Amino acid sequence: LHTARLELRSRYKGAALMMVPIYVLRTALMNSGYPLEESILMDFVPKHTRARWKSLESVSQFGWCGSAALGGWLGDRFGYSFTFIITA
Predict the structure, then answer these.
(1) Who is most buried in 38, 74, 77, 84, counting CB within 10 A?
(2) What is the model's pTM?
(3) CB contact set of 71 (below 8 Å; sequence gap of 6+)
(4) Which residues does 32 contact at the CB level (< 8 Å), separation at least 6?
(5) What is d(CA 41, CA 23) in angstroms, rounded to the nearest whole number?
(6) Kind and range of the H or E element at 5?
(7) Could you tell me how far CA 37 lies from the centroid of its own chain?
(8) Handedness of CA 3, 8, 14, 16 (dihedral sign)
């Protein structure tokens, strides 16, 4: 068992060394638009309503967390095939 683990580790070590920087770059690129989006939103919103718009944006971002929790609950309750059926 120990030998098999060392074999797997040595086989995929090069792939991991390549994939980690690619993943970090992808994550940085995916999140790089957020500051620009935030800046544009706050430029077009009057100063006295900025807090309201910021809170609405936070609520919309929370929706992603809620959908993940709902999907997990559906997966546990009905099985994962059910979640694919209702989204199809």
Answers:
(1) 74
(2) 0.45
(3) 83
(4) none
(5) 28
(6) helix 2-31
(7) 17
(8) negative
| Structure tokens belonging to residue 28 | 């940085």
Whose tokens are 């690129």? That residue is 29
Q: State residue 12's pLDDT score.
A: 64
Tokens of 52: 């309201």
Tell me how many degrees the CA angle 76-58-24 measures, rounded to the nearest 5: 75
Instruction: Please work out, in degrees rounded to the nearest 5, the angle formed at the alpha carbon of residue 40 by the alpha carbons of 36 and 41.
Output: 115
Residues 6+ apart with CB under 8 A from 38: 57
| 28-47: pLDDT as tens digits | 998 888 888 888 888 998 99
Give the Cα separation of 53 and 31 in Å (integer).
20
